[in-house]
Task: inverse folding
């Protein structure tokens, strides 16, 4: 691969590149479309899949087709009035409520943490190094994911050489690229050292037990306790988290995902008086609309607020 190809490939995240390639392949191979495409063919493609694919998936397919045409130097057929009208019609006839992961509450985080500590201790006493290591890794994953409000892919991309510990204060994590980072400056995120449920202590315990000094923080562990060289695969994260929640006795574990840690922290912070600006700075949101999508109040129907007004009047 030439330097030019290398730099062009680096312009997109791996997940984005793979999803775009899959989308173009679906249009060209599975549906039988021709590239470069015409506005009419793109509109018919949308109409043929308006019932079987979600609106978000259709938007992603359009983005992939648009990028292919731009890369190849052809006019973008996805921005024409016909295509926009078809998409608007699909959205009108098929309104879909956005699915959101269930937020992990602080008491549930405490429940999971206690279970992981006990499980690691039992494994150590039974000389089961693989399980003991796995539970230490999982504890660091949960606590850092919650208190830092990391996305799932950000957790899998953390590297030890990009983490600095300030004794008695906390830890600083650097990510070379983050979602919405159009300037490609990367982002620096801080996590505090706490008296309990501490992400810093959990992280240090994990890398000490695993004898890690560089590379990915969170890695797969085989049945014999051998660590992989690469990071946990993003597709393995949700099954991993749900499995731990289920074993720890958290109800309806299937409703949680990696976003549950991020949403859980946002809801906890809001309930404890954090203003929106502070929350956005801590988590790394660029606009208030993004932040509000993650916040669940502890009084979702505003029942207590209304009841107080009725009582006082």
Result:
């Amino acid at each position: 691969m030439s330097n030019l190809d290398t730099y062009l490939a680096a312009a997109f995240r791996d997940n984005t590149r793979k999803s775009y390639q899959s989308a173009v392949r679906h249009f060209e191979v599975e549906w039988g479309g021709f590239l470069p495409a015409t506005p009419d063919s793109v509109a018919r493609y949308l109409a043929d899949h308006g019932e079987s694919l979600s609106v978000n998936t259709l938007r992603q397919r359009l983005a992939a087709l648009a990028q292919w045409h731009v890369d190849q130097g052809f006019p973008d057929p996805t921005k024409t009035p016909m295509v926009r009208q078809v998409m608007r019609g699909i959205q009108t006839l098929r309104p879909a409520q956005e699915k959101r992961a269930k937020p992990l509450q602080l008491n549930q985080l405490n429940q999971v943490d206690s279970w992981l500590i006990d499980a690691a201790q039992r494994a150590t006493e039974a000389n089961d190094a693989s399980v003991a290591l796995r539970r230490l890794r999982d504890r660091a994953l949960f606590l850092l994911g919650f208190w830092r409000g990391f996305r799932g892919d950000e957790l899998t991309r953390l590297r030890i050489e990009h983490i600095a510990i300030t004794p008695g204060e906390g830890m600083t994590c650097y990510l070379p690229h983050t979602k919405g980072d159009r300037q490609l400056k990367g982002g620096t995120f801080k996590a505090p050292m706490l008296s309990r449920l501490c992400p810093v202590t959990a992280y240090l315990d994990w890398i000490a037990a695993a004898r890690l000094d560089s590379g990915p923080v969170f890695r797969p562990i085989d049945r014999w306790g051998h660590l992989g060289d690469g990071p946990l695969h993003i597709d393995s994260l949700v099954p991993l988290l749900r499995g731990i929640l289920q074993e720890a006795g958290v109800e309806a574990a299937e409703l949680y995902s990696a976003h549950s840690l991020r949403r859980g922290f946002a809801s906890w912070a809001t309930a404890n008086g954090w203003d929106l600006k502070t929350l956005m700075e801590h988590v790394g949101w660029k606009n208030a609309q993004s932040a509000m999508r993650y916040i669940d109040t502890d009084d979702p129907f505003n029942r207590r607020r209304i009841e107080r007004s009725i009582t006082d009047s």
The chain has 14 helices and three strands.
